[in-house]
Amino acid sequence: MCTTAKDLSIIEPRIGTLVRDLTDAPDTGEVAAALRPVMDDVIQQAVTSSQGGKRLRALLSLDAFDVLTEQHHVNSSRNAMIDLACAIEVFQTAALVHDDIIDESDLRRGKPSAHRALEYAVHNASIGRGLGLMLGDILATECIEIARRAAKQLSNSDAIIESFLTMQREVEIGQVLDLGVEMTPLSNPQALVQASLNVFRWKTASYTTIAPLLFALLAAGVDPQDARREALAVGEPLGLAFQLADDLLDVIGSSRNTGKPVGGDIREGKRTVLLADALNAANVSDRDELRAMFEAEHRDETQVGRVITLFERTGAIDQSRARISILWSQSRQAIEQWHLSEDGRRRLIEACARFIPSDLR
Amino acid sequence: MCTTAKDLSIIEPRIGTLVRDLTDAPDTGEVAAALRPVMDDVIQQAVTSSQGGKRLRALLSLDAFDVLTEQHHVNSSRNAMIDLACAIEVFQTAALVHDDIIDESDLRRGKPSAHRALEYAVHNASIGRGLGLMLGDILATECIEIARRAAKQLSNSDAIIESFLTMQREVEIGQVLDLGVEMTPLSNPQALVQASLNVFRWKTASYTTIAPLLFALLAAGVDPQDARREALAVGEPLGLAFQLADDLLDVIGSSRNTGKPVGGDIREGKRTVLLADALNAANVSDRDELRAMFEAEHRDETQVGRVITLFERTGAIDQSRARISILWSQSRQAIEQWHLSEDGRRRLIEACARFIPSDLR
């Protein structure tokens, strides 16, 4: 059995190597000497943008794979599974690069976002931005190539590629729906709750928990139909709980260093489940106050504090805690159906628990 | 044998159906009712953006497939080959959607570009733009899924998916290099010629001629290594000639209705092979005049006319004609190596000839 620290020490450099190789032009042709510098800028940025993730998704996939292959005495290539796990992380980087362009974010993981860094590198805003957009495209294609190569050495290889593409489409749909939520009027909080949870399923649970579990099940030789059902049963509530916890920590703060200041989502006017729950439960005057603050262009520090007070007073924060706790218990119950050994179950629960801070489980 | 008109009448609605189905959320989950409208806007735009292409790439792939399967008496699924040919067209749409965002183009094929149309649809510039970016991402993923499903019913299915991903990466690299050319100084015209031709290979020849031929060869059961060599030998010169002809027609005008006004590339200040050839051959005063005009932010109508005069006088236009003619003859010679019947060779040459106006061949 491998430790998390050991796995991380394998995953991290492996992502670097894969990204460096596959962001470069394929060996089907040459790159003209005059154009080598711009190509190198993009490769360097691909590597930089790929660094600094917590690798939760890759670790979940690997841990589930280890549990399943030991349990079923399957002899499948762990090396290939590592690459497949890395492909999820590369996909996340691709999605974040485009996300930062859409949100016009200057920073990501404490460093300049990819399109900003490329603007600085080439000293040209519009070309740098274009290179950032293309870097997202390149990473989104190369992660499929990484998955394809890995899948060739694993069970259910065709189902793995299909699932990888489905995961990618799900997240892209999630981004569209997330933009849709930004346009959803605040006058119908119940619809907003449904819409926000729906976005979590597509944009977050898809690639954070469902796909990593699905890839492990498929690679361990589980029948694709069973694998999809089992991955969804455990992964969907877990992924929703993960995103709810992330949004909650943004408001109540965290002992974890998330690198984000408290209240960031409120400052940005993000339409979260917390906001919808608060609007839903608020009295008329609190509701009007919340709506006015969120319909405004900007919110100052005093207003951010006031929103947090209203989130507390309406019970929205307690409701999020309750939602997370219920979802976590649904996910745990679904793990019971996987028919694992006592030790296997314990290890899988441990792997899943990483997605939810212990005081919120 | 199928006629081009008949093939087009199959391809066109098939693209519509595939794009409508695969742009929508996969059936792995539900879309919340409140978010259905934004999803439908994106699907509608995917269908609209997919319309109006000449389908040269799909037709080349199908024609080559017909010639090869008849020649080798291969019994491969023409229906699957049609889908694979459509996947190339869907990929082109994906690339154009992002291209228009990078270039900030308002129009495409005489209609609003995808991101502009989505801005109008949702009455919100930044969200519309974000949806446009995501539409490009969705189309880029779904064309791989179309190719994957098609490849399952064709020979060399794994090599087809691999080649499809390589094609996509090549075009993405081409876009990066194209942005690099925009930053290439005009002081070294020879480097500019090399760089521009290099961009043509990656950005245009890749998916316009090389990949369509390669997919046909693979689907007809040709050994992957031979297929790559043969597709490159015919497709690379043909694709370069196609792009050179396109750039030339932008300057000298065309009997074809390209939908573009004469001199558009010059107006935009595009660094073309024509410009590089002109700078290369110009005397000192003409060269300085050209450089000054192309280093300026904008060029007025008089300057566009003046540039065309200089392109003529320096022999750049004749040189482009000569380049196209040589490349076309290289492509024809490479077709001879395919060992086709007299009839097969004639039909393949006809299919390739569609890429070059007859007076430039």
From TrEMBL, chains A, B:
Q: Name one Pfam family in it.
A: polyprenyl_synt
The UniProt family comment states: Belongs to the FPP/GGPP synthase family.
Q: Which PANTHER family does this one have?
A: GERANYLGERANYL PYROPHOSPHATE SYNTHASE, SHORT CHAIN ISOPRENYL DIPHOSPHATE SYNTHASE
Superkingdom classification of source: Bacteria
The cofactors named for this UniProt entry are:
Mg(2+)
Q: Which PROSITE patterns match?
A: POLYPRENYL_SYNTHASE_1, POLYPRENYL_SYNTHASE_2
Which SUPFAM superfamilies does this one have? Terpenoid synthases
- What is one process in the GO biological process aspect for this record? isoprenoid biosynthetic process
What would you give as a GO molecular function for this chain, any one?
A: metal ion binding
What is this protein identified as? Bifunctional short chain isoprenyl diphosphate synthase
* KW Magnesium (keyword) present: yes
Give the enzyme's EC designation.
2.5.1.29
Keywords noted in UniProt: Magnesium, Metal-binding, Transferase
